[in-house]
Design brief:
alpha/beta; 19% strand
């Protein structure tokens, strides 16, 4: 394994509204917490950067069906639904990226944020990405990371799909792989660190 490349972990949108019981729950969304926590601990122990992205929507946005969008109200700023899952590891060294602050959909953690700049300033070359949901925010974040020139490992056991249409998750994984992402298991990677 190439350990010389500077890595960062990016945990995408593991928020209450995307987990069971939330307003836009992803089936088994909470199952991503355990593998991501293990990686968060390992990255922090090695002093490698960890980022968490979050949807951070205003109360009224064209992203929501009530205002012409696709989705029910979710992850409204400063609400319980917008908080990270209670079991997801937190640490003062983890950086938070907020997206979806306006009317844009902002599926990617790179959309209208300074994530790329922060990663470049840290000298990061490779991103390990997992979270919610495979077929929306994870996929778009992976694709944008590749466009920004990062090598990407998408963590299959640390992501779950919305599946608006059956097979959306598998199609998203194929799209990420075809774009150049390495599709791997967090558990396998963790054992090699």
């Amino acid at each position: 394994m190439e350990n010389h490349r500077k890595k960062a972990l990016l945990v995408v949108d593991v928020q209450n509204d995307f987990c069971p019981g939330g307003s836009l729950a992803v089936a088994h969304g909470d199952e991503v917490v355990a593998p991501l926590n293990k990686l968060i601990e390992e990255f922090l122990e090695r002093g490698e950067p960890v980022f968490k992205s979050r949807d951070w929507h205003p109360e009224k946005t064209k992203h929501f069906t009530a205002y012409g969008g696709t989705w029910p109200v979710h992850c409204v700023q400063n609400t319980k639904g917008a908080e990270f899952h209670s079991e997801l590891k937190d640490d003062i060294h983890i950086r938070t990226i907020s997206k979806g602050l306006g009317d844009e959909d902002s599926y990617s953690a790179f959309d209208v944020t300074d994530l790329a700049l922060q990663l470049q300033r840290l000298g990061v070359e490779e991103l390990w990405i997992g979270g919610l949901a495979t077929d929306y925010c994870v996929k778009n974040t992976v694709l944008d990371a590749l466009k920004e020139g990062f090598r990407v490992k998408a963590l299959t056991d640390a992501m779950r799909a919305v599946e608006l249409q059956p097979g959306d998750g598998e199609r998203a994984i194929k799209e990420m792989r075809d774009a150049g992402a390495e599709i791997v298991s967090a558990q396998v990677l963790s054992s090699k660190l």
